[in-house]
Amino acid sequence: MLFTELPLLDRPAAARKAGFEAVEFWWPFASPVPGDAQVDAFVSAIQDAGVRLVGLNFFGGDLAGPDCGVLSIPRRAGEFRDNVEVAVGIGERLGVRVFNALYGNRVEDVESGLQHETAMASLALAAEAAGRIGAVVLIEAVSGPKPYPLRTAGQAVAVVDAANAAAGADNVGFLCDLYHLAVNGDDVGAAIARHAGAIRHVQIADAPGRGEPGTGDLDLAGHLASLRHHGYDGWVSLEYRPSTTTEESLAWLRRGDLEGQR
Fold first, then answer.
1. What pLDDT shows up at residue 220?
2. Is the dihedral of CA 29, 31, 37, 43 positive or negative?
3. 8 Å CB contact between 66 and 110
4. Sign of the CA dihedral 186, 239, 218, 197?
5. Which of 121, 183, 215, 252 could form a disulfide with 211 if both were Cys (CB 3.0 to 4.6 A apart)?
6. By three-state DSSP, how is residue 196 classified?
C-alpha cells in the first residue's frame, strides 16, 4: 500500500532508500500461478534492494470484489491450492515467515457451513506447506462493506484455533490489524490482552481514514506498547494509505512518534 507512486518492482528499492530493512507484499501477481520469469523478477527486486521480505499474502482473488478470499469459495479454492506451492516457494527463496490467507467473503450461492469446511481444508494445506519452511499462516479480521465474516479478533482467533485443529499443527496464527479491529468496533485493548498468545503479526494504520499515524485518533502508541507488554516482539507493518506521497507520509516516523517500534 506504500510507494504505489512507483511500479511494483521498484518499490522494494524505494523502501530501502527510505530507511526500511524489511517489506511485506500483498500477492504481487494478477494470477495465482505466474510464470517463472515473473517470479524471478520479483525475487530479484527484493534481493537487489537489500531488504527482507517478512510477509506475503497468498493469492486472494479480487480484494475489492465479491471473490475476495478464494480459499473458502468451493469453485475457486483450486486456485488457492495451486497458489500455495508458488507462494511458499517464493518464501523459501526469500526467508518469508508469515503468509496471510484471506478467509474469504461469503457468497450467496454457497451455504456458509460448506464455505467454512472449504476454508479449513485450504488452510490445512497451506499450514502444511508453510510448516515445511518454518513459516506461519495468518488469519485476520477485515473491515469494509464486503461480506467477510471475520470482523472481530475473537472471530478470527476462533478460525485460527479451528484451522490448527484441522491441520494438526500450531502454525496458524492471528494477524492483528489494529485499523480493521478499531473501525469494526472491536475493543482493541481487550482484544490484545485476550488473544496475545495467538498474535503472530501486526499491521497498523490510523483510524478513521486508514492513513498514516497522526491522521486519525487511534491510540497506536498505546496499543503497540500493550502488545510489547503482552509479549509480542515481531514485526509491525505499515498498511496504510498515505494522505500525501509515501515519502512525505513518513514524517511521523522520522519524528519518532511511535518511538521504539520495530
1. 97
2. positive
3. no
4. positive
5. 215
6. helix
Could you read off the pLDDT of 42-60 as tens digits, one per residue? 999 999 999 999 999 999 9
Q: Note whether 175 and 203 are within 8 A (CB).
A: yes
- The helix/strand/coil state of 11 is helix
Q: What share of the chain is helix, strand, coil (3-state, %, to 5)?
A: 45, 15, 45
Query: Could you give the residue ranges of the DSSP H alpha helices within 60-187?
Result: 77-94, 112-131, 153-167, 178-183
Radius of gyration of the chain from Cα atoms? Answer: 18
Phi-psi region of 30 (alpha: psi -120 to 50; beta: other; left: phi over 0): alpha
Active site positions, annotated? 140, 239
Within 8 A by CB and 6+ apart from 51, the residues are 12, 15, 16, 20, 21, 22, 23
What 3-state DSSP class applies to 104?
coil
- Max Cα separation, the chain? 51
**Residue found under cell 480493521:** 180
Cα–Cα nearest to 136, from 91, 178, 75, 70: 91
Residue 259: pLDDT band by 50, 70, 90 thresholds?
low
